[in-house]
Design goal:
The chain is mainly β and 84 residues long. Helix content is 8%, strand content 24%.
Amino acid sequence: MGNPGELVAMVRLRRGVVGESRRVCHVVPVPDPWQARGLPERLTALCGEHIVVEQAELLPGLAGMPCEPCLLRSAPRQTLPKGA
């Protein structure tokens, strides 16, 4: 799961890289520009998928079919009080 306040981007593989059914919208933590020296060659989505930057399409928001594992890992979690 991403950290609270962590900057994330919505990314999917470009058309032609994979079949249309695999072009899902992934949630990808954005590398800290102060720590990273330039953009990394690969981005890692919250689901664990490694995405080569040259094959990625940056989306303005959630578009198309979402990656369900990414959504599950990005959702905030709360603990229910005992007896609830």
